Amino acid sequence: MRVVIAVAALAATLAAADWTLYRSLPFEVSTDRDKKHAREVLNHLDQLRWAFSQISGKMEPRTLWPVKVIVTRGPSSPQLRLVHDAWVGTLDDKAEVPNAWNAQLAQIFIEDNLGRMTPEIERGLVAILSNAEVSGTHIILGQPVPKPTLDWARMHVLVTSEEYRGRVKVLIANLSKGVDSGVAFRNGLGKTAEEIEKQAQTQLAAKTVATYDMAGKPVNAQRDYQAREADDATIKALLKPESAPDTALGRMAVNDFDAAVKLKPEWAEPWKLMAALEQEPGKKAGLMKKAAELSPRDGKLWTEFALLMHSYNRFADADKAWAGAERAAADPTERQQIRARREGLVEARLQAEQDARREEKLAKERELQRLKNEAVARIREAEGKFNGGKAALDPEKKIEAWWDGPQGDAKVEGRLVRVDCLGKQLRVAVEVAPGKVAQLLVPDPGKIAIEGKGELTLGCGPQRAARRVMVEFIQKMNPKMNTVGEVAVIRFP
After folding, report:
1. What is the pLDDT of residue 351?
2. Are strands 86-92 and 483-492 parallel, antiparallel or unpaired?
3. Do 81 and 189 reside in the same domain of the chain?
4. Which of 18, 192, 215, 275 has its CA 20 to 30 A from that of 299?
5. Boundary (domain end) residue, out of 349, 374, 393
């Protein structure tokens, strides 16, 4: 409460102040006091951004929201705060940029420019930049911190050591793209993570600390930062004691999607809010995908997108989203939880697909059997008609070899290739040699003998599996039926 009152009081006392603004994007420094000091503050911010770019390899790192500093007489802000569409801080006209601001800016640079890295590397990068000392175009890195940690010591080794300082950007680029930590260390530094860890522990225990004088951005603060007139109303608005959720920016994201996207196309929040409200699956998926792409470090958002794609059975998109969620995980534990959840859903999906394929196969087999049964029934019905109304013989029943009917005076042997059903008569075709067929008439199917093994009935039409057959017949030409005799006995060997 005291901070809010102090900021409000400060805004009231500055109503008639004469303000000058200096800009080097993404930074703006406004002052109603010493203009030289204001330029030095802007140079500090500029050089801190430069140092981050040299270490990370991210040239021209951006911030989603600009950083606006007000240098005036009064207390300095302990932290930058998000007001309207900018990070805002007030700095006493005699004070240097606080280490807490350095650390916060380093974290903002990481969040707005790099993919998720291991927590130890991110914490170390923040720690090494937190007490960066700027003097003109010189940046001193690696000075002792009040409470050194292994994360600080590790980054200290990588930044101040001549062996690694030119290669640390490769390590960070690998980690930022989701490359496995062990591979990233070997690719970037030519050393294992364990080897670097030992050097970090040695550094942490050391009594003396080496520093690195980095060549800064080639800029002359007192010459290159041009003075501009600042608007009093804008300064007053920046000093209002608002918190981020209550800002006009936050209200815009909720109430005016088009305006919010136009204001800041790379801002994910409006897309997330619209996705939450959208009910149509296709539109919802598109909004969620855009929000996730704008938030590569938001593991929760990527997980929600993966679950959404899974629920829509868009499994290829779900796999990509799961990969994004794993890359965005804040630590190995979260990554393992995401992986386990993904594997559980994939296993359930594969089991469901396997069950569906099995059921489809069974359904096809049932349908095929039904069609076979219907076909057999039709054949039996036809055979019954041609066998004088007698039931077809049971193929499992043993047939006794006896016959007291007509005896043939000739016979043929070959393959039974066709049975023509001609009203009450049958005509059988026996292939006795390749291309040579003998046709025989069955005037009355009920008065012939059928002997042998297997199926002992005659199905109408071409025989799918032509069986060997021996036919005894009475020689009797029938030109009209094109037959050479009348069947007496049919034997299937």
Report:
1. 79
2. unpaired
3. yes
4. 192
5. 349
Does residue 6 surpass a pLDDT of 50?
Answer: no
Instruction: Output the CA angle 395-401-403, nearest 5 degrees.
Output: 110
What is the spatial distance between Cα 109 and Cα 125, in angstroms, rounded to a whole number? 10
Rounded CA gap, 407 and 449, in Å?
Answer: 10
Count the domains in the chain: 3
Task: Report the pLDDT value the prediction gives residue 244, as an integer from 0 to 100.
Answer: 45
**Which of the four pLDDT bands, split at 50, 70 and 90, describes residue 241?**
low
* The token pair that represents 83 in the structure block: 């007001």
Decide: 492 and 468 in contact? Cβ < 8 Å. Answer: yes
pLDDT tens across 65-78, in order? 999 999 999 999 99
Q: Which of 326, 349, 372 is the last residue of a domain?
A: 349
* Sole residue written with tokens 């049975």: 419
Structural domain span for residue 131: 2-228
pTM to 2 decimals? Answer: 0.67
Q: Give the CATH number for residue 436.
A: 2.40.50
pLDDT, tens digit (0-9, with 9 covering 90-100), for 433-449 = 888 999 999 998 888 88
Strand residues in 93-198 grouped as ranges (E): 133-135, 138-141
Strand order in the sheet with 81-83: 81-83, 86-92, 67-72, 27-31, 20-24, 228-229
- Please indicate, yes or no, whether residues 308 and 450 belong to a single structural domain of this protein: no
- 361 occurs within a structural domain: no
